[in-house]
Amino acid sequence: MTTVDTVLSKHDNGLNFSSWSYNKNQVWKGSLETVSFEKQTIKDKLMVLNKPCYIVKVAGKIGVTNEGYLSPGDNGTTLQVELLTFAAPIRIQQFGDPNFLSSHGVKYAYVTGAMAGGIASEEMVIALGKEQILSSFGAGGLTPERLEAAINRIQQALPQGPYAFNLIHSPNEPAIERRAVDLYLKYQVRTVEASAFLDLTPNIVYYRLAGLGLNNANQIEIKNKIIAKISRREVATKFLQPAPARIVKELLEQGLITELQATLAAKVPMADDITVEADSGGHTDNRPLVCVLPSIIALRDEIQAQYHYQTPIRIGVAGGIGTPQSALAAFMMGAAYIMTGSINQSCVESGACEHTKKLLAQAEMADMIMAPAADMFEMGVKLQVLKRGTMFPMRAQKLFELYRAYDSIEEIPLAEREKLEKQVFRKTIAEVWEGTAAYLSQKNPEKLGKAVNNPKLKMALIFRWYLGLSSRWSSSGEKGREVDYQIWCGPAMGGFNDWVRGSYLSEPNNRRVVDVANQIMTGAAFLYRVQNLKIQGLQASNYYSQYHPVRSTSLLEI
């Protein structure tokens, strides 16, 4: 016979309860043998997320069980087991906006963002897509031929999706944007992640409107979905509103859209989802998550009240998401979904080279710095990169300082030019220009023509040679150029490394994007349960609030 004495432990398990929170209306009924009083077994039961979790008190000792059931209380009887509180089962799918799951055909509200140059690779998109997790291919900076090959490969592997492709704003080369849009329309790529946009362009509007139509019920059908990544209210407003009438008129006059599509354009927003980008890797405004997300959610609500869209735009978040704690924080602040970026770059499926992955796996939160961006160099735009193990940030900043100080290469003092040739370019400036000119003659002869007569532009193009190649060196693993690797990275990478330290995920070779996604989402669910119980009155030691990656997440049905 099981008695109270046989199930109670004499050791302190670190659990207490606020007396004012006692549950007097219900009682727990079940076998005492299922109640755990030891620390490890208690935590194991807290981790069984697909079952309820009952916190009970037996002879003054608090225990935990997943078994038994609740029954109406009887105030006239004295119970051997007192119910303190309980937590319902929880599944990963409960986080975020359920409309996000149904719209994109995914199993939970987790997305991996695009990292340019194919760092967010075909392998990454396919691996996640096969597990019904949305991933965006890093199309930025790739040739049309390379992008077309990626589209074919991903669509062949994921004929029903889910997948997305990046459409990065190219202010200096709008033709690049247009070629990507043409390919997306040609191959019926139904979801794009729009990033780095400062304003709406005819290209992004064309993609959106070309997918508008009416279904059999005469309802508006939006085939071409847009996930817009923004960090400023003024840019968010443009994607939250319908397409500008001026651009719609231009597209109609050019015969790119139909009269019906032009009419429907005024009734739908430019984006289905807005990803609020906080302190992220690459292009970023270093916004604090706790400030920018509520602001954009409030802005969405204002614009929804004005336009009354049939399906309100969903607001997700990116930047700084690298642990279960940050993921849970985002969801609790109202994020419809979370997007990870930097942490995926260190995974097996990433397009980064092995040397880069090792540097990323060693990074700490303070190992990031802002450096000039290749694609918006002349505008002074910066992006966030890893500074540990590379000289790129300092050398790139030096190039920008020279560009700002002088109007031509020839004006730069001879000693500075020689230093550039020896330490940065590792070839003469004349050789760099020769290679740049040969590239532009094939890809952008108009810009080459302008540079010949514009010394300032010529200098910028020479400097951009280094800035552009440095990120490719990081992906390809260019030998001898390790100190010049440009590695886009945000502080989430350092947070992730802190979290996985001492676990199997500390090694880059063990980091797989699906596993990382499952660990973060499972951890968020576990931490939510613990916090939920604490709010109800449970006082638990820090031991119960720690979730470390474990090789199996089989306890949670996903």
From TrEMBL:
Q: Which CDD domains match?
A: NPD_FabD
What are the transmembrane regions? Answer: none
Segments forming domain [Acyl-carrier-protein] S-malonyltransferase-like inserted helical: 406-485
User: What is the residue range of the signal peptide feature?
Assistant: none
Gene3D superfamilies in alphabetical order: Aldolase class I
Q: Which residues does the UniProt record annotate as the domain Fatty acid synthase subunit PfaD N-terminal?
A: 28-89
- Protein name stated in the entry: 2-nitropropane dioxygenase
